[in-house]
Amino acid sequence: MKKNLRGILSLSLLAFLFGCEKPQLSDLYQHKPRLVVISNFTTLDGIQVQVSKSRSPLDNGGTEYITNARVEIWEGEQLLERLNLNDTREEKTPFYTSEVIKPRIGVDYTVKVSAKGFESVTATSRIPERVNLDSVLVEKLKATPDDPGFVRYDFDLAIYFTDPLIERNFYHVNVFQKSITPLKDGVDFLEQTKKLVFGSEVNSNYIVANYDGGLLIEDKLIDGRAIRIPIPISMRMPAHLQNFDELIVELRSVSEEYYLFHSTVSRQQDNDDLPFSDPIVLFNNIRNGQGVFAGYSQAKQAVIIKPK
C-alpha cells in the first residue's frame, strides 16, 4: 500500500476542504450530514475510494471517516466488485480499495456508496485516452554561485505535447524532483522524490496552478496545436555534486470532472487570502453527496539537469 500513500494524503485534504466552504445563512442553523466521496482513478492501480462525513460550517473538527460503508463499482448494470476497507494499522487514513478491477480507458465506471444514517450516493466517470509527451527539455540553463559550496540553477523546464484536434481535452501536469545525496560514509546515499508546487502567478487563460502541485490545463485556446509549456524553475545544489537531480514529468489526461473539481478547489484556496473576493463553489459530481469520482490516464518522461 505504500505506493499509494501520496494519493491518499491528497484525498484526505480534499475531504477536509468540503468542510471549509463559505456558509450560507441557512447552513448556520441546520446541517444535514451527507457522504463525501473522493476518488481519482487510473489504469495503473485499482480503484481507491475515500468516504467521510460532511461537516457543518460551524464545526472546526477534523475529518470524520466512514468505515462501515458499502462501496461498489459498477459497469452499466453489472456489479464489478464490492471494495474492501484497507488495513488502518498500515495506513492511518481509511479508504476502500479494489482487488480485482483494473480500470480501462474509455469505460464508464459508476461508484455506489451507502452507509447507515446517510442518503446513498452515486457518480460516474471514465478514463480518457492518453496523450503522450513529445519531449521534455531543460532550456535556458543558468548556473550562479550561491552560498559557499553551493550553486543555484535557473532554467525553463519545457514540456512539449500535441493536443488532439476537435475534442475537448483537460490535463494535469505534475513535476517531481528526484535527488540522490551521498552520505558521509561515501558508500550509501539518500534518494528523495518530491512533487513541485507552483504559485498562482503561473496562472493564465488556460493554466491553473493546482493546490497540491502541478498545473491544470484546459485546451479551449490550444485545441489541436503542438504545445510548449515553459515552467520556470530555480534550485540550489552542492557545487561538488556529481549525481545531478532528475526531473520527472507526468502528463495526466484527465476527465472533465477531474479538471473542474481540482481547478475550483485551487481557486478556492487562492481566495482564502482575499476576504472580499467572490466565493468559489466547489465542483461536485457525487449525486446526493459531495466530492469527486474521476478518471485519468498518464504518460511520463524524465530529464536530468546537466550543467555545461
TrEMBL record:
Pfam families for this protein: DUF4249
Domain of life: Bacteria
InterPro entries, A to Z: DUF4249
Name the record gives this protein: DUF4249 domain-containing protein
Source organism per UniProt: Haliscomenobacter hydrossis (strain ATCC 27775 / DSM 1100 / LMG 10767 / O)
